[in-house]
Write a structure and sequence with these properties.
Blueprint lengths: L2 H8 L12 H182 L1
Length: 205
């Protein structure tokens, strides 16, 4: 409750004898009421000044806050732009990585296919070479077996044929020697006859 309300509530003016209130009591009450009003006016002025100061300070703080808000909004916009650029760069980087991974996978698959092809060809060549080697080995074994069988079957005959051939060669050599001696004798005879004829001709002359 304010001083004015308290004063009005507790106001008790002294009444005059002829009716109404005593003038001095009314003046005193008016002076007291005026003092209360002046005090309240002074207090209100002080409060108003304080409020104006507070308002001015609040206005400055609000202006500063608005400046900070604008600054933060600018920073936020820049951060959002930077975030957007980072997101775009990250997306491009991810796409590049995916493309590299796909290319690497393709190269690896191609290399694996080529390696598998080379291995398959080499394996086939080894298999064919092994089969050819085994076939040649079996053929050589058959030939060796045949030779052994032929040697066992015709060994004695060959020895006999060799001995017979040696004897035949000896006989031929002897025959040739005999023929040569005979030819030599015939030649000597012819030489002698020729020499005799020459001598006869010389005598006749």
């Amino acid at each position: 409750m304010s001083d004015l309300q308290t004063f009005v509530k507790n106001l008790n003016l002294k009444k005059a004898a002829f009716g109404g209130f005593e003038t001095e009591a009314v003046y005193a009450a008016m002076r007291e009421l005026t003092a209360i009003y002046l005090d309240e006016i002074t207090q209100l002025r002080e409060e108003k000044a304080q409020l104006e100061n507070d308002y001015e300070a609040a206005t400055k703080q609000l202006s500063k806050a608005n400046s900070e808000i604008h600054k933060l909004q600018y920073q936020l916009e820049e951060a959002q732009k930077s975030q957007s650029q980072c997101a775009q760069k990250f997306k491009a980087f991810s796409l590049a990585i995916d493309a590299l991974n796909a290319e690497k996978e393709g190269i690896l698959n191609k290399a694996k296919q080529e390696a598998d092809g080379i291995i398959a060809k080499a394996t086939e060549k080894c298999r064919l070479a092994n089969e050819e080697y085994l076939a040649q080995k079996r053929q050589m074994e058959r030939i060796s077996t045949n030779i052994s069988n032929i040697k066992q079957k015709f060994g004695t005959t060959l020895d006999n044929a060799h001995s017979l051939l040696s004897n035949l060669l000896s006989v031929v050599e002897e025959v040739q020697n005999s023929e040569i001696e005979q030819q030599c004798d015939e030649a000597n005879e012819q030489i002698k006859k020729a020499a005799g004829s020459i001598k006869q001709n010389e005598c006749c002359e």
